[in-house]
Amino acid sequence: MEKPPPASVSPPKHAHRPPPGLCALPTISYNSPRGLVLGLTFIAYALYHASRKPPSIVKRALSESWPPFYDPALLGETDVAFLAFYSLGMFVAGHLGDHLDLRLFLTVGMIGSGTAVALFGVGYFLSLHSLAFYLIAQVIAGLLQSTGWPSVVAIIGNWFHGRRRGLLMGIWNAHTSIGNISGSLIAAAMLRYGWGWSFIVPGLLIALGGVLVFFFLAPYPEDLGFPPTALPKKINEVSINEEDNNSANIAGDNKKEDKRDAVGIWKAFAIPGVITFALCLFFTKLVAYTFLYWLPFYLSETSIGGKKMSITSAGYLSTLFDVGGIIGGILAGFISDHLNARATTAAIFVYLAIPSLYAFHAYGGTSEVANIGLMMINGLFVNGPYALITTAVSADLGTHKSLTGDSRALATVTAIIDGTGSLGAALGPFITGFISKHGWDSVFAMLIFCALAAGILLSRIVKSEIVQIIQNRRSHTLDMYNRTTDSSVRPLLGGDT
Questions:
Q1: Which of 57, 118, 448, 463 is most exposed by smallest CB count within 10 Å?
Q2: Which top-rank group of organisms is this from (predicted)?
Q3: Is the pLDDT of residue 489 over 80?
Q4: What is the mean pLDDT of residues 381-396?
Q5: Please, which residues bridge with residue 304 across strands?
Q6: Residue 259: helix, strand or coil by DSSP?
Q7: What span, in angstroms and rounded, lies between the C-alpha atoms of 303 and 367?
């Protein structure tokens, strides 16, 4: 294996054996595994999300033909069982992810998740009508699915650094929407053979993805013999949460043994901004997951252009929300990099989500064209801040300067933020299951309130970012002035500042 220049470093104590598949390759440069890491983590989490889509696609089929789900509120209970235990499992999974081999941890999580998802579908083939069976299946699936997000964000954070992290992770985060789209299409296509297949097939696919991760994913550069954070200079730009002198110390740090330890959960909570962004994600993820679990059902129950569509057609149409989400995630990452202001960008998106939510509910039924356009706009504004907070913000805070560059907090911080967000994700679909019986006006009022709350929570950080932006602009202007004007010209321009 080709290693980067200098530095004989002692093997870090958390380094693990290279993946078996990569051991078969004779030579590998530093950038080759980076591309592989991007691709495999993208596929892995797309499969996680694809395996979460079947419940939303089969809701109407279950409510029409499969006791005990004639009451939509019971469908909401299965959603909350999954999401509540997903959220609780997230805090444990994040802490474990910073202690264990992330490759093995992710492999076990994916194969276990696939088994649990398929278990729900087995109920169809065994003609099971016990609510307890389906609740238990969702509880197991939720716990196992919590292994995914802290792991993939930590792995990306280990390999990629710099101020362009927002754009990179915005593009990479398209896996969420790609997973939702592919999961919807697969589940809808399988529905014609019986709703059980809508769970079995996505379950098999994520299990196969776990096998790929086992053979080819290297969580740390050190696992392949590269020094930690040994990025080329052009790539290793300073993160928004790091001081300039940190980058100057990287070479020196690489010469000594890596003694990084995983931080405790309370120390991770104490990182500035973690609690604020976690609470903001509680509300933004509540909105996003209400769409994730209830949008196909809403579309099938709502008259669009004077007629209602089938549940299969509604499942296909709902994927356009995620198409808008892909654009939103990339756009939010790009803007946040350009402004160097993550909170301000997120706040802009959540405030713009308020009128878009109202317009979708009020005017989405006028025609299919209006419905599609407004649905994609909602996807853009709802998923944009959700994607930004769960990726770039989590990675930035997981390597915050208060940790002295300790990247072993990545999975823990990611788990705290996304775990708190997942509590909102559990609450939204659960409440929707009850209040949707009385009409959808109340559901959209709840979503609008949550978007407003998310924006308000970010106010303090937004204020600080705006002050910082103004100061940076003034400093830059003054610097340019000093560089381009000499002492003989300055008096003509009004003298020294």
A1: 463
A2: Eukaryota
A3: no
A4: 85
A5: 307
A6: coil
A7: 9
What local confidence, expressed as pLDDT, does residue 244 receive?
Answer: 35
CB count within 10 Å of CB 375 equals: 24
Answer for the pair 281, 434: CB distance below 8 angstroms, yes or no. no
Say if CB 148 and CB 109 are below 8 A apart: yes
Mean pLDDT over each residue of the chain, to the nearest integer:
81
Structure tokens at 401: 């300067």
CA distance 224 to 7: 14
User: Residue 47's closest CA among 154, 170, 151, 139?
Assistant: 151
- The 10s digit of each residue's pLDDT in 152-175 is 988 887 887 665 667 788 888 889
Check whether the bond before 20 is cis (ω within 30° of 0): no
Residue with tokens 């009850």, as numbered in its chain: 434
pLDDT(127) > 50: yes
Domains of the chain by start residue, with CATH:
24-223+264-468 (1.20.1250.20)
Nearest to 326 by CA among 103, 172, 186, 160: 172
Under the banding of pLDDT at 50, 70 and 90, the label for residue 97 is confident
* φ/ψ bin of 67: left (φ > 0), alpha (ψ from -120 to 50), beta (otherwise): beta
Angle between helices 368-388 and 311-339 (to 10 degrees): 40
Residue-wise pLDDT tens digits, 338-373: 888 889 999 999 999 999 999 999 999 999 999 999
Cβ burial of 250 (10 Å; 0-12, 13-18, 19+) is middle
CA angle 195, 201, 204 (to 5 degrees): 140
* Among 159, 172, 148, residue whose Cα is nearest residue 50: 148
Give the pair of three-digit tokens for residue 456. 């308000």
pLDDT at 302 exceeding the cut of 70: yes
| Type of residue numbered 401 | K
Residue showing tokens 């079947």: 54
d(CA 127, CA 66): 9
DSSP symbol at 307 = B
Q: 55 to each of 52, 78, 124, 295, how far by Cα in Å?
A: 7, 9, 13, 11
**Rg of the chain's alpha carbons, rounded to an integer?**
24
Q: Do residues 134 and 120 lie in contact, with contact meaning Cβ atoms separated by under 8 Å?
A: yes
Reported confidence tier of residue 337, pLDDT bands at 50, 70, 90: confident
Return d(Cα 255, Cα 7) in angstroms, integer. Answer: 6
**491 band by pLDDT with thresholds 50, 70 and 90:** low
CB 56 within 8 A of CB 78: no
Contacts of 439 (CB under 8 A, 6+ apart): none
